[in-house]
Design brief:
Length: about 120
């Protein structure tokens, strides 16, 4: 499945979760429910995937974790905040650079309409 199609499927699953739960819950709740929804749709999903940092040829496991990694190609960062800001986008971009992946989705579930809380982040 190409990245655009995969992101469409993921966004559809996220919308289903948001419709069922609404805004105002903890990020961990949305993460678990989205994980379940994605798996139910036949996708391979890893939760809290460790991201090593390589500094001067030294690989360090220092605690960075991707919320959800879908099909080894798409990073999902889950938020439940009043509004997304630039640091949230930069965080996803950093994860993309560290993993050498191309696409991430920043999903803020604390909005009345989920499509208003979705940002695509591209590692060019």
């Amino acid at each position: 499945m190409d990245l655009n199609k995969l992101s469409q499927v993921v966004i559809g699953c996220a919308i289903n979760v948001h419709k069922a739960l609404g805004p105002g819950l903890l990020e961990s709740v949305y993460q678990e429910c989205l994980y379940y929804e994605l798996c139910e749709n036949g996708l391979y999903v890893e939760k809290e995937k460790t991201v090593p940092v390589v500094y001067k040829d030294i690989k360090m496991e220092i605690g960075y974790r991707i919320d959800l990694l879908v099909n080894d190609t798409l990073i999902l960062e889950i938020k439940s905040v009043d509004e997304l800001n630039k640091i949230h986008l930069v965080q996803v971009l950093t994860y993309l650079k560290l993993t050498q992946l191309k696409l991430g989705l920043l999903l803020n579930f604390n909005v009345s309409k989920l499509t208003d809380g979705i940002k695509r982040v591209i590692n060019s």
